[in-house]
Amino acid sequence: MSLEKKSDTDEIDLLDLLVQLWKGKKTIIVSVCITAILAIGYIAVAKEKWTSTAIITPPQLGQLANYPTAVAVIDPSNSKDISNDVFANFVSRVSAEALKFLPEKPLDIKPTNSGSKDSYTVSFSAETAKDAQKSLATVLNTVNKQTSSSFYSNAEKVLEVRMQAINTALDAQVKTAEEKKARRLNALSEALKVAEATNTKSVSVKEVTGLSDEMLFMLGEPALKTIIANETSWPLYLSDSYYSNRETLQALREIKLSDSGNDKFEAFSFSQQPSLPIIKDAPKKSLILILSVLLGGLIGAGIVLCKGLIRNIKEKNPAA
Questions:
Q1: What is the number of structural domains in the chain?
Q2: Do residue 78 and residue 207 come from a single domain?
Q3: Where is the Polysaccharide chain length determinant N-terminal domain (predicted)?
Q4: Is the pLDDT of residue 291 over 90?
Q5: Dihedral, 54, 60, 61, 67 alpha carbons, nearest 10
């Protein structure tokens, strides 16, 4: 019996609630209209947000202009994966560029596939679709130039150091050769003096090869004079390494560290060009209007129910 009464009471309360809401429908409608008008006003003044995206991957060696060739000549021992090295530097620069736009952060870069560094998705948001696409392309082009300038600048420094080292080595080799020639001529001159003092006119030895400086006088005065005259006019004797260094130096001098012309330095490849967005990210007009209507309905219903509750309390306590 008590359960039946309770059920009847719940049904009566629910009907009463619906009746109150129906009686207060004007309040609810007004509330919905106010929130809808506010939503429309927000939509009218809110800035639109369009996002252009691009997918980038490491460049091919052919996209790095003459940089790989220059590196191969400058530092033959360099075994780095130049393509991935350049791409990693480019990605880090784009990430640093994104920090400049905080707190709005319209520029964003993240791996296309989680945990992979072979592909990145770069996005840029703006108030129009064309601005988003253009801005993204501009940022990528600007960072590409920065990367190119950085790598070529470092290569120029390494090239300069390498050329200085080779020039130093060549100077040292020439100096060593000059010293050897001077010592040889001095030894021959001393031997000539001994030959003249001992009146050695003809060769007094059978084997000339391996003759020590102290025994050179035994070649005889005429032979020594001839040798001194010849060796004085002879060019310096320079080793094969000297000429190898000169060839390397010439090759380094011919390097032109520039990406001007038809071959441009590209620090990345496009897997997807910057897109022209066709759906804006914000504001979502339909969603905002729907939410505003729901919010207005809830506020209006709340006002109606609160009024009904206050009225019931006054009826139960007329003295209050």
A1: 2
A2: yes
A3: 10-86
A4: no
A5: 0
